[in-house]
Amino acid sequence: MTIPREHYLQAVFPTPFHPRTAAANTLNVWHRWRDYTVADAYFDVALEYTALRNACTVFDLSPMTKHLITGPDALAFMNRLVTRDVAKVKPGRVGYTVWCDDAGQVVDDGTIFHLRDHVYRLCSQERQLDWLLGSAYGFDVSIVEETHDVAAIALQGPTSCALLKRLGLAQVETLAPFGIRSYAFEGGELMVSRTGFTGDLGYELWIDPELAVSLWDRVFDVGQVVGVKPMGTLALEMSRIEAGFIQAGVDFLPADRAIRADRTRSPFELDLEWLVDFRKGSFTGRRALLGERTRGSRYRLVKLDVEGNKPAKDAFIYDRRRRNVGVVTSALWSPAAKANIALASVQMPFGAPGDELWAEIYYQKELKWSRFMARCTVVEGAFFNPARRRAQPAADC
Amino acid sequence: MTDAGRVVIVGGGHNGLVCAAWLARAGRKVLVLEAADQVGGAAVTREFSPGFRVSSGAHLLHALDPVVERTLKLASHGLALARTGLNTVALGEGGPLVLNGAQVLAGEVSATDRLALAQHVSRQRRYAALLARQHGRIPSTPWNLAKFALDIRRLGRADMRELLRVGTMPLYDLLEDRFENAQLKGALALDGVLGAKLGPRSGQTFFTSLQRAGAYSMPRGGMGTVTGALAIAARAAGAEIRVSSPVASFRVATREDGGEHISGVVLESGEEVAAAVVVSNADPKTTFLRLLGARHLDAEFARRVQHFRAQGCAAKLHLALDGLPEFRGVPPAQLGERLIIAPDLGYIEAAFNPAKYREFSPAPVLEITVPSLHDPGLAPPGKQVLSAIVQYAPYDLAGGWDAGRPHLLAATLDVLARYAPGLRGRILDAELLTPVDLEREFRITGGHWHHGELALDQFMMLRPVPGAAQYATPLPGLYLCGAGSHPGGGVMGSAGRNAARVVLAGGRV
User: Fold this and answer.
1) Which of B258, B296, B299 sits opposite A134 (nearest CB)?
2) B422 touches A at CB < 8 Å
3) One domain, residues A57 and A155
4) B300–A101: do the CB atoms touch at under 8 Å?
5) In a domain, A43, yes or no
6) pTM of the model
7) Domain containing A333: what range?
């Protein structure tokens, strides 16, 4: 850890990129993300979003909670921790996953980076060190939080691969989605993963904090011709909803933070059944999830195409008989999908494809509130899912 | 050995043997694997010095499940009691106080206190009977919970109100409220703290005192006779018992669908024994964390097991004596009774204080028996054996027990010398088993004779932890039957009997 002795004088740290993000933040709007200050937006949310979908953007990912899990039992530990089969995440690959408590309720979601044999990096939305250490009894593993030791930016958008080529990363276009590759960078190591939270072609770049500023400068030097822009959290939020990605604390409440029993969600209730592998053997929550599979779930997460153009933020969801059956957790009018989209958690059995649902949307015009009942269509698959996201090799010009 | 239809019982303590006998009587093929060279667990008689034998764990019988005793016909299998209804001789500076239940047999006790004692003992017995009614029930099934609630209601208005008032109370306050005589209060308080990491001022010592409301007996031949009779009963029913067969781990198999279940055990010798059902008489931590392994359990469940309070706080002293000890003011006729050194509440609490800070009592509390008086076979002719529970001796002693053991022995002998001045000169040999020694000898993680504190938060449906409190465990085919399960420690056998019933029901309760 590189926290200075005077850390208590400052409750929130600048990220390793702060000298550059501060200079780029012409709006000077910031918010706190865990231990760090990050930009809501740099110059214009809509333009940042547009740059993401049409050129490429740089997002400062450094505050993301990161853990390094090593040791002979690293794989066994990971497989007991998470719901998917980590043995299938080969070295040099990344896997999205969730992990549950004993009751099969999702504690958090995150990504597993299989760096090399017996070495994993687990990135999570929430702080998880306590949960990980509590799960480590009986395993020969070492678990350290390395949030402060690794700086990262997400380089996302259709020209992101072209930018990396200009940065001199040979053959980067051949890196498959969810692949990891390392390059030399100014005497250090630059790790590149083809991952992201935008649903677009994109990469995440992981580097020693000492080299962070230098990486930022090089990216913006070579990136001018491919239209690179810095992007803040607000534009990221738009893109992740379009991609249909859920967020802890927004679309589900982490189980270890819930006081009321019905506030948590299982992977099945978050449309993440594909992440649950019962055949791999025991893992925390397996028994409970088997029970749920037999008994049936209480809720389901649905993607909705909402009538009209008023974002359905926080809207109640009703069935055809005007009975309240759920609530919208994330919503916006999607520029990419050209649709009014929403993620909602609804009670079973509502929300099956073809079901008629209604969203109660409140909106304001010149301080006057109005209410609008919007018809919703349940959508399957992501709202925005361009072929370039998966293309191999990636478009590099 | 590849017989998968058999039940393997890991550990031949009294509960393991009861479970074995019960299952064998029901027609199951049962194999008991005991690590030591004799069965019995912590209810054994063994030689501690050439020619001197003693009950090396529990030394008094006070809670043996009558259903077990009757059903397994233990009397016909060799169980004989040398003495029943032992008096309690509370030693004190001004001479001993001799009690037997509600009666004061000797000592100066006021009429008020005698009346209070009669009321106190009678009430304790009613409450203890209420708990005893739960012993044979599988905890927290809806039906049994309802029966428990009904049992409480049936106490009647006055008793129920009183139970709810004092249920979690420190014994200290209760006894101060009811009695005048300091020595009497000390004697009564001992029941609430013996074996526990609690002082009289600790919460819920009223509750723990109910565990020792039974009459004390001494089996002929020591506690080994009880488990010896159980072993004979188990064998008679068809169970096979192998001693000197320590189990190293459980074998876990994975089905096609990824579900795990027990498939047998692996002995320390490397031998594998297949079994569809394994019943563990070992304590919960040994069972889940060492023999099974936390990786086969959900993380929160494994964490609860780790946090199960199971650190022993009592040591065991064995003395080989070259003649009868003499305790000041105690007539020879009373020497064979249950002698206690707990002269007043303050003494016990002061003895407890250091334990909180990982130190032993400089002036410990003692429960003393001289078993050779009832069973001359335990010592060579003319010689005697003294057995004492020494409290408080925390498992996690600062500096470790190798360094601490001689100091605790010296402190204990000093206390004994205060009441039996000539005793030191009669000692031929001494053995002090600290919780660390008890852990090693009886393979109980933490060396707690109840396998874990018997407290309200580790009681009934909470014992040892939620998710394993009905004898079945999260791993299909693995069951618990030891004192770490309901109803807990003391040589009862109820846990073994209940576990067998759950096994016979296929894990469904």
Assistant:
1) B299
2) no
3) yes
4) yes
5) yes
6) 0.94
7) 298-380
Range B7-43+64-81+222-308+446-504 classified under CATH 3.40.190.10: no
pLDDT per residue over B334-392, tens digit each?
999 999 999 999 999 999 999 999 999 999 999 999 999 999 999 999 999 999 999 99
B298–A277 C-beta distance less than 8 A? no
Probe site for chain B from A86, A105, A135, A256 (most B CB atoms < 10 A): A135
Q: What is the pLDDT of residue A8?
A: 75
Q: What is the pLDDT of residue A7?
A: 67
Contacts of B474 in chain A (CB under 8 A): 287
**Burial (CB count <10 Å: 0-12, 13-18, 19+), residue A183:** middle
Are the C-beta atoms of B75 and B458 separated by less than 8 Å?
A: no
DSSP string, B473-489: -SSTTEEE-STTSTT-S
Residues A225 and A359 in one domain: no
What's the confidence (pLDDT) of residue B328? 93
Q: Give the pLDDT confidence of B97-117 residue by residue, as tens digits.
A: 999 999 999 999 999 999 999
A274 CB neighbour count, 10 Å cutoff: 10
Q: What is the pLDDT of residues A315-356, one digit of tens each?
A: 999 998 889 999 999 999 999 999 999 999 999 999 998 888
Instruction: Give the pLDDT confidence of A300-312 residue by residue, as tens digits.
Output: 999 999 999 999 9
Between A24 and A126, the higher pLDDT residue: A24
Q: What are phi and psi of B428, to 5 degrees?
A: -90, -35
C-alpha span between A109 and A254 (Å, rounded): 9
Would A261 be classed as within a structural domain? no
**What's the mean per-residue pLDDT of chain A?**
95
Distance from CA of A277 to the nearest CA of B (A): 9
Rounded to two decimals, the ipTM of the complex is 0.92
Nearest to A279 among B257, B293, B306 (CB): B257
Domain of residue A35, CATH code:
3.30.1360.120
- A318 and A216 fall within a common domain: no
What's residue A311's pLDDT?
Answer: 95
Q: 3-state DSSP: chain B helix, strand, coil percent, rounded to 5?
A: 40, 20, 40
Residue that the structure tokens 């205060």 belong to: B418
Q: Structural domain boundaries of chain B?
A: 7-43+64-81+222-308+446-504, 116-212
> Considering its fold, how many domains does chain A have in total?
2
Q: What ranges in B26-79 are assigned the alpha helix state H? A: 66-71
Sheet holding A188-193, edge to edge: A180-185, A188-193, A202-207, A151-156, A56-60, A228-230
Collapse the DSSP code of B281 into the 3-class scheme (helix H, G, I; strand E, B; otherwise coil) and give the result.
coil
